[in-house]
Fold:
Amino acid sequence: MTKTKTKIYGFPKYFCDFFFGTQKEAEEYAALTNAQVVEERNSWGITPSISYDWYALPPDHLRAHLDRNHNFERMRPFPILEAEVEILGEFEADFPNGICLLANSNWTFKKSCRIARTFNSPEELEISRAMIDAPKLSDTASRLINDYLGADGGELIGVTLEQIALIDSCSSEKILTSNSHPYSGDQIDKHHCQLKNGETLTLFVKSCGYFEGYSWQAFTSKSEAFKELRAELRARAKADWTALECWECGATYTEPGHVEPGQMGCDRCNS
Ligand SMILES: [Zn+2]
Structure:
């Protein structure tokens, strides 16, 4: 199957501090939005820092929305951006305005593989569908995508968005639930999925709910999912191991997690 690239457009939505892992990424983004790169302690930021939402609507439509709407007055000096993506399908999204597109994307859209079809009007939905047609994702695929995008740092490990877009149906079972956590606890679910191309895909989804949100990771390997859970449980158990120097043996460490609370024991004297 040939992959066709489709143009989508970025709307300057709000001021928002965000950070890039590399200077190159920050510079690329800054160049697009007429911003300056600012070096932070362990990352790069930009100023002014504008967050863009992506739309499957014509650029002149976005410009008109920007010029007309009082809420976006401070955003008017910023450009409408343009990008090319590969559209994977249409789905009903929890955010922002119902019907969205799912796309394969490069770094610029890491968090925005979700492309809105409308700001809020049914007429826009028609305009958008005339501009970009896309197959509907199944309910199962839509649910997984919403969970992935809604999570804090949702991750796909060993599975691609493209494969998830192909999911037709699935049968699921909980293979682990733990209530050790104050909110909703750790959970691993196994999803045995039937794909639209006749193949099957087994996913192990590890999630954990907490006060402000939830974490979510999909693995194709059960042992990888459990390995990640064990690492997290170990890290949580050592959350109060913050001292860097052990008074018992004199060892010093560069990061927390090695010295017992009270500083009378550490990884070195316990081993
Ligand atoms: Zn020690």
User: Anything to note?
Assistant: The first strand starts at residue 5 and ends at 15.
